[in-house]
Write a structure and sequence with these properties.
67% helix, globular
């Protein structure tokens, strides 16, 4: 009888855990988009929520990563930094798209899911290897006391 290999949870440095929690909420956004599309919810409702989420959660998250996290790996010539920055730009463009909503929302969900998986599995692991104690302490201080709060009445994903 064969046993499935167990997947070990990723060990995340405490300074990176708040960013990982933000990634969790990003994956929830992806689930909500997918669920809304699968249920035939009006794409405009899904887009309104996605825009709200981007403005209030993802945009600040991207800015923090770009200004404080990515420089730990070096300049923009680092392949992981270059990839993350390119994906951030692609995601910004998808959030800004206002036409062909079902197609753009589906693409947004796919690209954001892959991007978060890349950052969690590869980029954060590389950061943990090279970050100094001081850099990690600075990251931890940036998230001190911050919590995720959502104020959105249209819970289309529960319909």
């Amino acid at each position: 009888m064969s046993q499935e290999p167990s997947i070990k949870p990723l060990k995340r440095h405490p300074a990176l855990q708040p960013l990982s929690r933000e990634h969790h909420y990003g994956l929830l956004l992806c689930w909500k988009i997918r669920t809304g599309l699968d249920k035939g919810i009006a794409p405009e409702r899904i887009k309104a929520y996605s825009d709200y989420f981007f403005k209030n959660h993802l945009r600040p998250h991207f800015e923090l990563e770009e200004q404080s996290l990515f420089p730990i790996l070096g300049d923009q010539d680092h392949p992981m930094v270059r990839r993350a920055l390119q994906e951030h730009e692609q995601l910004r463009a998808l959030f800004a798209a206002g036409d062909e909503l079902p197609r753009h929302l589906s693409l947004l969900e796919q690209v954001l899911t892959a991007h978060i998986r890349f950052e969690e599995r590869e980029l954060f692991a590389a950061l943990q290897e090279v970050a100094t104690r001081e850099q990690l302490a600075a990251l931890a201080a940036m998230h001190s006391g911050q919590t995720f709060a959502e104020d959105w009445a249209d819970k289309f994903w529960e319909a």
